[in-house]
Write a structure and sequence with these properties.
Organism: Clostridium formicaceticum
GO molecular function: acyltransferase activity, transferring groups other than amino-acyl groups; glycine reductase activity
Order of helices and strands: HEHEEHEEEHEHEEHEHEEHHHHEHEEH
Protein name: Glycine reductase
Largest sheet: 12 strands, mixed
Keywords: Oxidoreductase
Helix content: 40-55%
Radius of gyration: 25 Å
Pfam families: FA_synthesis
Number of helices: 13
């Protein structure tokens, strides 16, 4: 690009900004939110229509399209595959040309997951679902503690100064409650709320989901993903998500880009709302809020609390080793009491000691299956390796 052309483009942007400011009464750089337009089950036109709806209803931000060329007055960057669109999106975010982007099927690194926002059917209240896609941690309980922090970050960036937090009654909820209360006792400001049910407590029931009791509902990501789909599409039969704000921004330590996720089934209203959600997060300085919250949580010993929830270094090292299974044999003996997240590691621990084992699901939950004659030895080895293993399981 020649120097004269670059200067002309810069002058053109300045005059456009002045014109926008005169028209809207808002001076300064306007927030620009991108939208990739490939990948929807409802077609490119579904996304473009949503973008035009969002642009028409807002004076506080601009919409930029990234995808195949279409008839629209919106600024467009051409991309003809999802891969091209994501590459262009990242370039525009890194250059500051856009401040945030809404897209589909984007892969975040481990440690980053998304915080969705729904409208609850009981009382029409907005509620953050922490989290809905991505993986905060390979360890379930550690992930849920991080999810709570990510939810607080999203809510604060969205304008809620002291958001309430509830933990959905799923596996690991009590451990998460203990960890969050320890974090609070160490000085991190976390506002745990009470269930609407008579017995109270910060462990939330299904009723609390429907009513939107907390500002932030914490659970594992897979459960959160299901909740998003139910809340978004329960009025349509499931193939068209019509309610809510999408699956939200990817949040995690070191995550610099503001990227929000949509389902491929997201309809026009949800896409338009997701663009609004993105603009609000940019306005609320999501990146800075995240840095402040991570700093405050770490000051309250977050890292040490998380380490206490995961397996010790020795067990983790053993799980990462290449271990070959011993010769296969009949496994009619079963051992219960091992957490489902530890089951495969327990199998490998026995393989390493020469005992053939398989994982399974019994009538009371996850089980480890070994040869009937080796149950006693297997129990002893598992306990020595640090696994919580019960007696032989009889259904």
């Amino acid at each position: 690009m020649s120097e004269n052309k670059a200067v002309k483009q810069m002058i053109g942007k300045v005059f456009n900004n002045i014109a926008d400011a005169i028209e809207t009464g808002e001076f300064g750089k306007k927030t620009r939110i991108g939208l990739t337009t490939l990948g929807s089950e409802h077609g490119v036109e579904n996304l473009v229509k949503a973008a035009q709806m969002a642009a028409k209803s807002s004076t506080g931000y601009q919409i930029v399209l990234i995808g195949p060329k279409v008839e629209s007055d919106l600024v467009q960057y051409e991309a003809n595959t999802e891969e091209e669109a994501h590459k262009k999106m990242e370039e525009l975010l890194d250059s500051g040309e856009i401040d945030g982007c809404v897209t589909m099927h984007y892969s975040f690194p481990i440690g980053v997951s998304t915080v969705g926002k729904v409208i609850t059917p009981g009382k029409g209240k907005e509620m953050f679902i922490a989290t809905t896609t991505g993986t905060s941690s390979p360890h379930r309980t550690e992930a849920m503690v991080k999810n709570a922090l990510y939810g607080i970050i999203a809510a604060k960036a969205n304008g809620i100064k002291n958001p309430t937090v509830g933990i959905l009654n799923v596996d690991g909820a009590r451990q998460v409650e203990k960890a969050l209360k320890e974090l609070k006792a160490n000085g991190y400001a976390i506002n745990l709320t009470e269930s609407m049910r008579s017995d109270g407590g910060c462990i939330m029931r299904g009723n609390d989901l429907l009513a939107g009791t907390p500002d932030i509902m914490v659970q594992d990501t897979l459960s959160g993903n299901v909740l998003m789909k139910v809340f978004s599409a329960f009025t349509t039969g499931g193939d068209y998500e019509s309610i809510g704000y999408g699956y939200g921004p990817g949040i995690g330590e070191g995550q610099e880009r503001t990227i929000l996720i949509l389902s491929r089934a997201s309809g026009v209203p949800v896409v338009a709302n997701a663009l609004q959600y993105a603009a609000e997060l940019v306005k609320g300085n999501l990146k800075e809020v995240a840095k402040e919250e991570f700093q405050a949580a770490k000051k309250a010993n977050l890292d040490e609390i998380l380490k206490s929830l995961t397996k010790d270094n020795k067990k983790a090292k053993e799980a990462d080793e290449e271990i070959t299974a011993p010769p296969k044999e009949v496994v009619t003996g079963s051992i219960s009491g091992i957490d489902i997240m530890d089951l495969e590691d327990a199998v490998k621990a026995l393989w390493k000691k020469g005992i053939y084992a398989e994982s399974g699901m019994g009538c009371t939950g996850p089980i480890l299956m070994v040869n009937e004659a080796k149950v006693k030895d297997a129990l002893m080895l598992l306990q020595e390796a640090g696994f919580v293993a019960g007696e032989k399981s009889d259904c």
